[in-house]
């Protein structure tokens, strides 16, 4: 909406677009950073720089002047040929970014350093971009407080989720391991003991007893596995990709809707210049 409100002849319109794309990239990176902070990953790499590079790449894919879904090749000032990407990359740009950040965290997993401060750094940079947008592009009196409140809520949610990063202090380790060991011993000993005392001539009764013991044992072991998942939800209890990729997919859909509604693909004419 901010981009749509900018005038076509404004000299700083490209800078405005870069600020907006930077904010979207940082919002995409935030849940990935929080998730790996919860997992205890202390790897600290330059996420903000990576998001800035992604914003510049998206600016090449979606220039201000036109929005063509075909692949183009141009030569920049340095003489290097730049491939402008495909429609697939444009439509799923932030999903790809989220997966790339997740891969970086997974391949460089570490627990040896101090706790990672990447989530705090990301929210700090989002606030800085908002302040720049407010200072230079006059967002109005009502919009910035609402955006700041949403950023604060996002930061608080990330901080509340971060409590699971201190599993050693929260989880009842002795209770969990004792329950786990005792339950597994019982689940293994009961079938063995039952097999030695079965009355094999009564084959029908034996079959029912074996089936009943198998069902009870399998159910108990499943509950035991879920018990561990409850105390480590972000590593075992939930599908983390449904969270991180879900946010990235929403941002992609929002951006695609804005560009699809603003441009006539056949004639290349803007349908709404200043829609708010």
From TrEMBL:
Species in which this protein is naturally found: Fusarium kuroshium
Protein known as: Uncharacterized protein
Lineage: Eukaryota, Fungi, Dikarya, Ascomycota, Pezizomycotina
């Amino acid at each position: 909406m901010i981009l749509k409100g900018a005038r076509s002849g404004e000299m700083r319109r490209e800078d405005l677009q870069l600020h907006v794309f930077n904010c979207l990239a940082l919002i995409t990176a935030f849940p990935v950073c929080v998730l790996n902070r919860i997992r205890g990953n202390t790897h600290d790499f330059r996420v903000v720089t990576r998001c800035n590079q992604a914003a510049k790449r998206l600016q090449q894919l979606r220039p201000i002047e036109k929005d063509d879904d075909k692949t183009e090749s141009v030569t920049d000032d340095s003489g290097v040929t730049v491939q402008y990407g495909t429609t697939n990359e444009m439509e799923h740009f932030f999903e790809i970014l989220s997966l790339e950040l997740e891969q970086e965290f997974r391949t460089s997993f570490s627990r040896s350093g101090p706790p990672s401060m990447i989530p705090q750094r990301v929210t700090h940079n989002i606030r800085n971009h908002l302040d720049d947008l407010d200072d230079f592009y006059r967002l109005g009196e009502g919009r910035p407080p609402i955006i700041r409140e949403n950023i604060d809520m996002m930061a608080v949610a990330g901080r509340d989720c971060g409590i699971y990063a201190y599993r050693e202090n929260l989880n009842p380790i002795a209770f969990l391991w004792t329950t786990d060991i005792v339950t597994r011993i019982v689940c293994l000993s009961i079938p063995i003991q039952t097999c030695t005392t079965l009355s094999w001539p009564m084959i029908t009764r034996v079959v029912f007893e074996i089936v009943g013991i198998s069902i009870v044992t399998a159910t108990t072991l499943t509950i035991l596995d879920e018990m561990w998942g409850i105390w480590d939800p972000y590593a075992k209890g939930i599908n983390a990709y449904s969270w991180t990729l879900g946010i990235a997919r929403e941002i992609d859909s929002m951006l695609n809707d804005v560009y699809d509604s603003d441009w006539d693909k056949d004639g290349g004419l803007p349908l709404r210049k200043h829609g708010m």
